[in-house]
Amino acid sequence: MPDAESRAIGFSNTNGNTSFPTQGPYMNCLWSYDLNSAIMHAVQAGNATPVHFFRCRTTAGWQAWQRYWTSTNTTQASDGTLKAASPIIKLFADGSFETNAESEGCTVQRLRVGEYLIEGCEALNADAGWGGWDGGFDIPTDKNKQPLIWLDYEVNADGSVFVKTYHRTYPDSPAFARNEIDGLSDGDPVDIPADQFVSVRVEMPQDSVWNQRQAAV
After folding, report:
1. Does 128 score more than 90 pLDDT?
2. Angstrom distances, CA of residue 106 to CA of 61, 70, 87, 125, 156
């Protein structure tokens, strides 16, 4: 309800409004100080993993929508930094894995030391934010930001991704930073470090759980 100075808080919902970020239903909240000072928050309705947006009103009118970064649309890399998510799979040493909402349906098998097979996808995602079609990986690093493993991969005809990891050393570095492990040489097959993971950004089929859910909204 507005007060004498036009301050107000309002709640509403909308569907098919072309002024909103995407098509579909939204739940909205409007905070208004006066006619030229307001903030609108919009959340996608009917979505298990909704995206949140906001925009501001000034004397120049409503400004462009901005997207919130949340656990829905970001992922934490093995070094703790945040990257744009969807669809991401985290691979662990023993072949266990984590999917997010958009990669739901993918599975992982550890075939042997340093070999992991991701199924249920259609190759890698070509998002430029991850380096394009050949850059959809985030690998573990040490405290000096040196990668702890070498990584190679193959995309099979069915779209599955065969990930291979190898030990990586730095013979020209100081002794404490060489990443030397008894019995292993540079380039030997090795599992992902036990306390870390490899993030893989994949492309999902049109009939994936996520895509079907979005089509139904």
Report:
1. no
2. 45, 22, 10, 14, 15
